[in-house]
Amino acid sequence: MPDPQYTTFEASDGALLSLKSSLPITNPDPSFIPNSPVLTFNSTSGRRARSDSKACVIAEEGPNYTRLILLLHGFSGSSDYFDRNFDELSKNHWVVAWDMRGHGRSGLRKARKGTKQARAGAVDGTGGNEGSKKEMEMGQAGTKQKEAEEKEEEEEAYETYSGGYHLSRLAVDLHNLLTFLKSSRLGPGGPSPPFQSVPQPPLEVIGVGCSIGAAILWTYIELFTDTDFSGFIFVDQAPLQDRSLFGAWDETKAHKGCYDEKTMLGAQKAWNLAPQIRHATHLGLVDECLGYRHRPLPTDKITEEEKKKDEEFFTAISAQCPSGEWLAKLIADHTRYDHREACEGITKPVMVMGGKRSGCFSLEGMEEVVKRAKKGGNERVETRWYESGHWLFWEEAERFNGEVLNFAKRCWSE
User: What is the pLDDT of residues 368-390, one digit of tens each?
Assistant: First the structure.
């Protein structure tokens, strides 16, 4: 099996976003003809293997570029959240986990065209030498006046992209990601050479959204319908975090800690800090999301060393998020967004997973997704309740992996 590959793609607004793929992402071979014997990667050898048919590849030869399990992490997380899931899921499937904008390896900054950042390709051989010459001249001057001028130029050269903290923007990012993946597959499904017009195999996607990742999928469905997906798994997220006058949405269904204006402002204050001084906020997130910390039981079999490692792992990921202000603004949009009606528009199979010891949501709140999907006429809806917390994919990884694989198999056999 090939090693996972990190790569980037550009969103429609110019933001550079990162993803982790279990199969190589590259420009397709221009001589590749999709209706010839299919090229794929053998799940054991990691070498290209030839098959006489697409069906044989899917049934026997392991991962290929026509069927994808797409993992979407939660708030202040990253693709690293799935360290206990990625390898197992990718043994026989193509798996991609992204870092949503403002998280992990994905950024918020974009440079204006023609600025020093855009011109400074001479250092790595990607462009001219205007930027490097200018930097040398500035460094040689060494005066306070020159330093002030350099600072002013830096401020002009780099533009902080302060927008993008809305679920609608993240859903468009997801749409951009799917477009990128469809056009960047090395094997079946890659684009035909310009001189050919060969029908392409569709990309069949299982979307696995954890926490805000589920909310991004619901927003995607509202904007683009669910036609790009074969099925959905929504992990420990209710379709509305705030309490509401509508639909009997009270404390039994809303988020347990962030559910109205006052609590939302408190959450914003906690996150609106630089990464190095919001460690207490990161710890609070860990306490909410790991079931053995939120509601410990005598039967928990976890050592102090394991607890420490978990804490360090998740707090370090939260610390990667560069802008506390951006996260705080995202909280406001996320907690107020009502996805209940959007769930009624889901026509594909759905699995709802929830942790009985979640510090974020009740099972009753998550069951609303099932009720709404059925209200819209979808009977292919099921639930799975775990004995752990919000991060059930981490605490009960073996069970989670098995559930995802079985669900995908059922979706793709229809």
Answer: 999 999 999 999 999 999 999 99
Show the tokens assigned to 261: 């204006």
pLDDT given for residue 64 in this prediction: 83
Q: Are 30 and 42 in contact (CB under 8 A)?
A: no
Q: Could you give the angle at the alpha carbon of 152 between the alpha carbons of 148 and 158, nearest 5°?
A: 145
Percentage of residues in the chain with pLDDT exceeding 90?
Answer: 65
Q: Residue 250 CB: number of other CB atoms within 10 A?
A: 12
**Global pTM exceeds 0.90:** no
What are the structure tokens assigned to 246, written together? 């509508």
The answer to whether the beta carbons of residues 48 and 56 sit under 8 Å apart is no
102-106, 339-343, 377-381: least confident range:
102-106
